[in-house]
Amino acid sequence: xxxxxxxxxxxxxxxxxxxxxxxxxxxxxxxxxxxxxxxxxxxxxxxxxxxxxxxxxxxxxxxxxxxxxxxxxxxxxxxxxxxxxxxxxxxxxxxxxxxxxxxxxxxxxxxxxxxxxxxxxxxxxxxxxxxxxxxxxxxxxxxxxxxxxxxxxxxxxxxxxxxxxxxxxxxxxxxxxxxxxxxxxxxxxxxxxxxxxxxxxxxxx
Amino acid sequence: xxxxxxxxxxxxxxxxxxxxxxxxxxxxxxxxxxxxxxxxxxxxxxxxxxxxxxxxxxxxxxxxxxxxxxxxxxxxxxxxxxxxxxxxxxxxxxxxxxxxxxxxxxxxxxxxxxxxxxxxxxxxxxxxxxxxxxxxxxxxxxxxxxxxxxxxxxxxxxxxxxxxxxxxxxxxxxxxxxxxxxxxxxxxxxxxxxxxxxxxxxxxxxxxxxxxxxxxxxxxxxxxxxxxxxxxxxxxxxxxxxxxxxxxxxxxxxxxxxxxxxxxxxxxxxxxxxxxxxxxxxxxxxxxxxxxxxxxxxxxxxxxxxxxxxxxxxxxxxxxxxxxxxxxxxxxxxxxxxxxxxxxxxxxxxxxxxxxxxxxxxxxxxxxxxxxxxxxxxxxxxxxxxxxxxxxxxxxxxxxxxxxxxxxxxxxxxxxxxxxxxxxxxxxxxxxxxxxxxxxxxxxxxxxxxxxxxxxxxxxxxxxxxxxxxxxxxxxxxxxxxxxxxxxxxxxxxxxxxxxxxxxxxxxxxxxxxxxxxxxxxxxxxx
Amino acid sequence: xxxxxxxxxxxxxxxxxxxxxxxxxxxxxxxxxxxxxxxxxxxxxxxxxxxxxxxxxxxxxxxxxxxxxxxxxxxxxxxxxxxxxxxxxxxxxxxxxxxxxxxxxxxxxxxxxxxxxxxxxxxxxxxxxxxxxxxxxxxxxxxxxxxxxxxxxxxxxxxxxxxxxxxxxxxxxxxxxxxxxxxxxxxxxxxxxxxxxxxxxxxxxxxxxxxxxxxxxxxxxxxxxxxxxxxxxxxxxxxxxxxxxxxxxxxxxxxxxxxxxxxxxxxxxxxxxxxxxxxxxxxxxxxxxxxxxxxxxxxxxxxxxxxxxxxxxxxxxxxxxxxxxxxxxxxxxxxxxxxxxxxxxxxxxxxxxxxxxxxxxxxxxxxxxxxxxxxxxxxxxxxxxxxxxxxxxxxxxxxxxxxx
Lengths: 205, 527, 404
What we know:
Chain A is α/β, with parallel strands linked by helices. In chain A, 15% of the residues lie in helices and 20% in strands. The termini of chain C are far apart.
């Protein structure tokens, strides 16, 4: 596949493109996070690229990698009909420090898309006019699409009533639930220092 | 180091190794059924056939065959190279081997797979091997087509009981003879053999015998298909619901590495599988060890008790602190347990020696049993050496010595970890002393009438370190949630110390291991 | 008595005034599929609006990571639930792109026909609901009646009126029924007749036109910047249709036009959908003419497609094949792909990341109406409160797709 766009970006931003591939025909570049906004600005305004639409912006969590999150943006040019996927890797292994510059000043679609990425992954977009949760309620704790967020966890805004003999309050009864998938079930570690039954008065002073 | 090429990749090998052994060490899997790294080579499945190119200057070893030519509508003569079994062909320096890149090899694999499935019964829905079956995996990878036979498959005996632990299904058997070789070579009891000929081949037990050697469950483990199944595991769980935790067997001082398979949705445990460790158990485990997973749910202490009456954990710990504070320290006997982990014993030592000032230590555990020169050790406790290393120079008495002291009136109160009395026939010899506080995970002779009984977690419910007979310290992982009110014994003992006003300095396992220092670091244990 | 302010200039009146915050809350008949819009009003003009979505968020993308690839189909169905066949086809195409396989021709025509039927149902719903919210209840009922006819065809084919889960990677769950072609052709005739009647009722109605014309306009530049695609973008004059620009299946071989609006207001969005409906009918007729009456619907790859049931019950290979595909999932090779199709609301994209096992690593649904709804704020700011109804209706926000 002709990797025209990749070559163009490489020429204009030497050193910014860390990796590139065109798997299944989708041209993809991985850029250095500090150059994210710069490359995006060029992609939008430069004539050979003229990416007038940011069609999607999301993130993927790779907890075994460092940096952990991969922010993925898909650009499309209505005038030229070509697409580009641009990625950047941010964030430490424990999930902190995932920040990148916002693209909301370049494309209006970035506004809500970045809000969703913040909501689901906890990636902070610097310079975003209104970075708050979009799909979840403000009192929600955690970022659910991270791989270490337990899929079985429930956070009701209003507490469930305590009904005796009801074994279906959790999403599944004990003998149900999918067996596949990486994240099966949370393991409660017995190594819990805050066991107040054993240690009176909680943590040692 | 001599190397050979496998699909254009250089593989180093030790002199005398076969292709498949060298590839296995390099992490490349050549499909196979009958080969096993711990058994002799049989080369009867023919799945590992590879193309070995002739050395320079020598003609290729080729066979004259006839193959169907569609365009001519007839069979035509062709030559194809003679493929060699990778499990039997020794590697030579500079040898060139083709596996994935040779169309003959791919066709051979597909044909072998087709042949193996020719008479195979449609048993997947009821076969325990489903989900970990080589026939399934290799069919998808190497064949993925239908068989060309339209006849009725051969019918053979199904569900034949071979012995107290194993059931055999002759229709599913591919006669790889792994079980035969295992029994003869590793278990040193050649009780299995192959009978009949051709497609009526089946495995049989020697007449008048049954498959009862102490490693019979290993025959089920080596069986690549569902022909041999364990009576203990049959029809109990589907393997794709199970997750495996890396544990250490608690059956004896050998400390075989194992996988404990459990269902994380319910916390139930289903079976052991051996984990490879070249230094300890190689690839095997004995039957006692394989069935030892049951101890997680058998005869467990899961609730605290004071004077035989059920109690909450908090109040039992309070009572334990009170009774230990009042106990006369020169007449307090402390029984450590070779059945519990190093961490548990370390906490007991800390509580007894540093907080209570006790000086009389004794080692309890299960009595000796039968050992052999294959795997089993006569010492049926996993951590004897671990406790001894912890005590170091401090004298550690045996249970008969404790009985003597009790009879003489020198020891009147006991603080015990575990419930076993070692070489004593029962606990009657210790009836002169009161068991003030007992921290135990399972019932035993020492627990006839303890004053305070605290429920401890056993193997599988908490991380622990166990030192085997050779001095190797090995970690055993936590697998399932603790049953009932049980907590790790070290945590209960630290809780008592906290109530006595003298914090031992750790609340979490990592902190304890830090305090333990080098004593708990696993020395080169394979993961 | 004389009016108090007859001689006074309005600017001289110091009446206390403050903007009013009105909560057009999630449980509102015009907030399709639960959207909360908090508007700040001066009088009847909207000064600011805060559109809050997420009331229908069900965590699809997380759930997809916990099953197999085939188990994602029910989830994508419930994204745009008025045209689920388009979502099914989109996801199946994305998986097939990653696997590098192409379905047989018969299946491609079948997918096109079912997809366009779904698009007809989507546009009927949107336009019918728009009419109802403006007070024209009869056209709504007629359009819903037409939609029922379409759904009867789909029920005959797939077994369900909505949320069919009919697509599969490598083909479809079942081949077309014997009466599919005649029934569909007859249904199309009926549907178009109903649409014609509705048009006669609505498009000459002064009130209807006044309420839609010039209401909620958006410029093409704004729409493109916001990432709008589909009928809403085409109403602004931008002729972007994935079926024409990047044809997939057999769209390059059929004749159809792409209706384009001029002003980008609510009336244009309404009309574009009506016109598209007719084009969809045209595509379906051509697809039915071209679709073979016999032949395989699924690709001939044993690693992807389930075997026929007789084989599963009688041969070991069939059992193993069924077992492997169902229990472990399709082994899509590791990698990532972005695949896009024209769904009812625009470019429906799937960004899939696979790690080689049978479970998806990441399934990202690029929802066209999420981005369209993000533009709602711009569309209604400056309009009057009553205009929110037709504006929002014309955007065709489907809660399932917006929130997933």
